Amino acid sequence: MKFFRSLLAKYMLIIFLAISIVQLSYFASAAFIFGIGKTDFSSEVLRENEVEKKWHTEAKSIKSFTDVAVSQHFKDWQKLYPKSSMFWVAEDGTLLTKVNVKEQLPSKWTPAYTTKFIKERYGEDPFTVIAFLGQDESNGFIVFEIPREVFNPPLKNVYEQYGAFVFFGVIAIILFFIIVSFLFFRGIRKRLLHLQEAMEIRDVDGLPIATKVKKKDEIGQLEQSFNRMVCELRESKNREQKEEQLRRELIANLSHDLRTPLTKIRAQSYSVSKEVLSEDGKLAIKAMETSIVNIDALIENLMSYTLLTASKYKFEAKEINVIRFAREQMTTWYPVFEKEGFEIDIELHPFEKNEWQIDPIWLGRIFDNLFQNILRHASSGKYIGVETESTEHYDAFIIKDHGKGMKNESNAKGAGIGLSIVDIMVKGMNLDWDIESSESGTKIKIKHYK
Amino acid sequence: MYRILYIEDEKEIGQWVTKDLTERGYKVTWLESGEEVDQHIASKDIAILDVMLPGLDGFSIGKRIKRENKEIPILMLSARTAVEDKIEGLNFADDYLTKPFHPDELIARVEVLLRRYQKNDDVLDLQHLKIYTKEMRIINKQTDEEIQLTGKQFYLLQYFIRHLNQILTKEQLYEGVWGESYIEGDKTLMVHIRYLREKIEINPAKPTIIETIRGIGYRVKL
């Protein structure tokens, strides 16, 4: 059953039909030819030399050279060959008996005309046989004429008469097969193209969509396999998402578990700070506070870094107005720098195009890390500048400080994980950045190429 | 005295926060899980919730409180710092503070929320001004005269009072007061702030109440 639904079966059916029609057409044309042959021609094939021989033999055997006898002889032949014509020319050149003669013949044959006649008829149409009547030339000669077409084989006659019909019949059959084959292959092609298109379409989650299986042939099976693959792909994606979820969960839990004791330390240190303390004690508490803040930032960075390097940090780019975003970002940092006694210099001018395709959480994180760095490593300069810069090739945010520069590391220097995160995030959003650092300060540019 | 419902399962942290808040004049009800929330919540002014709790987690408790008591502000206080957690929390909660936090920051945020929900003092002393926040009456203490504001000036000042100590960008102010999106270069806001300053500042040329934060926006600091 399965076989009969296959394309192979269909194709074989077409081929089989084609072959059988060719065979049938042989039989049909044979029947046709012989059918026609019977009505128009004798079933025997005429041969020129046989007719010639017979004409000579019978002319020789005629004994009575009268008009009646010759006419009788002509009539007998006429019965045998309806299309033939015959006449008798006497010894002195007089045209005697004529049967079925259509051309103009002279009543008196001169030697010159006779020679011309013989010359004209030699090897031409109609087929002409000239024989002396009786045993010698004294009784003149009889002439037999018949159109040469009667000697043609029957098929030739069919072609001559029904040629156009056969020709168009053959063309029609060929056209029919071309059309059938064309339709067959066009059907296959259409479905393959459709399948290809279906393979190109993507769902919202970026996966291909299963296609509808209409027929159960080879292409149908291909579609089924494709659907199976889509299914597997979706499962694998789900699995991956689940793993990702687990990983995030694990990191979130780890971060939580680290922060809880840190909060307890802060609780204790805060309680201690409320007691009456010596100067040294106060300093120790202050140092402890700073460490708590630093550890907190480190945990956060470590978690982010782990997720980022494993490409598991959530990234959702959208078009946002970065000037506005930067300004709002500054509203939370301004009081922090203000409290530390920084000179704050903010110059945010609109770019030609304020909308950048970025993830606001990522950009926020970049700013946070850079500001945190200034707070921790460059607070000696007591200066922070945030400004915009537009050049021919890029728009940029510039974050400046008057610290001692990156080479002259501050005491709070760590593994540089904060800047590593900035680097990954900047590149992840197709931005660029560079750092100019000297002893009089650091200048960081976050560039968006036009 | 403000009544705070505080849910925290870590004893040390719970004791510490309760003690500190109590010392600062708040009345704190501290629960170690969310089981008895329903009995207490109705009488409270604000809820501070931890996320990781035995039984029902802080997000579920918070959502339930918000569903039944829309007028109670919720502050999530959690050691979970992932962006996803913050986003989930801020879907219903009014603020999200991560551990380890400084008690001063906690208090500041609690006060902002109480003010936003107009649960705090009726009277606000702002330099030479006395502001009755419920009816938004402004008295100049030096002259004992009431200052009359036009509609937009009134809303502008009210917006500042609701966001005391916060720096507000031009966009935030314009969109908060006018309810339309801000178009770069629009001078409407500046003009209204100038009029407002002329009415409430002692010296409008050197404003002290509405500070200009250069490059960012404005701020009213208590």
Main structural class of chain B: alpha/beta
Number of helices of chain A: 10
How would a crystallographer describe the biggest sheet of chain A? Answer: 5 strands, mixed
The spatial strand order of the largest sheet of chain A comes to: 6-8-9-11-10
Count helical runs of chain B. Answer: 8
Beta-strand portion of chain A reads: 5-15%
In the sheet with the most strands of chain B, the strands line up as 2-1-3-4-5
- Predict the CATH topology of the largest domain in chain A: Heat Shock Protein 90
Q: Can you name the CATH architecture of the largest domain in chain A?
A: 2-Layer Sandwich
The total count of strands of chain B amounts to: 12
N- and C-termini, Cα separation of chain A: 64 Å
Largest interface: A-B, 38 and 35 residues
Order of SSEs of chain A: HHHEEHEEHHHEHEEHEEHEE
How many domains of chain A, as an integer?
A: 3
The percent range for helix content of chain A is: 55-70%
Question: What is the beta-strand fraction of chain B?
Answer: 15-25%
What summary fits the major beta sheet of chain B?
5 strands, parallel
The gross shape of chain A turns out to be: rod-shaped
